Amino acid sequence: MIGPMEGHVGSGSSASIVHADLIGTALFVVSATLASVVFTSPLRLVGVVVALALFASGVFAFVWSYWTAVQRSRTDDIAVAQLYFLAGGSTDVRVKRLMNGALAVQAVVALTTAIARNTTDGRAGSTLAFGILVPMFGLGLNGLWCAKHGTFAQRERGTAPNSESVPVSDDEMEQNSTHG
User: Nearest CA to 4 among 23, 27, 25?
Assistant: First the structure.
């Protein structure tokens, strides 16, 4: 069975990462907006729980993406901007638009809800500040998607990572093969 987005963002794990990003972003937008507008204790608690859960998931995805990218960097030339901001043609345009769009929405909603609450009635909305952590979710999932499914230039054998002129001998390459 084909899901509604699979024709647009790939299938399997590729689509799952994009879907998770979009669902997490929507959940954050709803919880943060409700918490900032209604500002009752139960809704503030929900907002904090959602923000912290997304942050924790983002940290996990970030570490996983970093590990995966390090493994790929033996054969692929990967830049940080490509990995976490989907820059440089490493990502399908539709995926890049969706995932960077979700990251932008996370950042804007986090800042807007944290600032808006403090300017409406003068009461501190400190629980809404947890939303500032949420863009880590978007960065982590961007990195995970790109590390697993991105396309990168192949590294030439015998050169150091991200270097065009530093030769590396085969012995030096082989001595590092046991490190993972």
Answer: 23
